[in-house]
Amino acid sequence: MKNRKVVLATGAFDLLHYGHLRFLEESKKIGGKNSRLIVLVARDKTAERLKGKKPVMSENERRALVASLKPVDEALLGYRQFSIRKVIEKVKPDIIAVGYDQDEVRKAVEKVAKENGLKIKVVQVKRFGRLDLYSSSKIKRRVIENWGRL
Known about the structure:
The chain has helices at residues 18-30, 44-51, 59-67, 84-91, 103-115, 136-147; strands spanning 6-11, 36-41, 74-77, 95-98, 121-124. It is an alpha/beta fold and 150 residues long.
């Protein structure tokens, strides 16, 4: 489709929650009407390196759940050896949307784009959802607090 923007969004998406859904909805909106949203789901090893702990759900389960969401046109697993350059070469995004807590990813994308003379817009999407449940870590803590001793 002519003039169809490709938006790339990234994340671990462990314990999918409302904040994730809102992030993906907003990412798709950034591209405008008829945009295509491709989501890169972090591999287990990458998620563990970035978050400091293993994901609860496997990379294949997380990718399948993300792929099933209405705003998502395609969900891919990241490279085993994380490389934002390889991802950009494969997806060829016009826009890359990163989460409120993805400063490292934002900086890496901006660096790769500048070094390669790429015209990629990088947008950091704000946080969504209840303050006490806006991250998988907070949800895990809440579950343990409320139901950890069954």
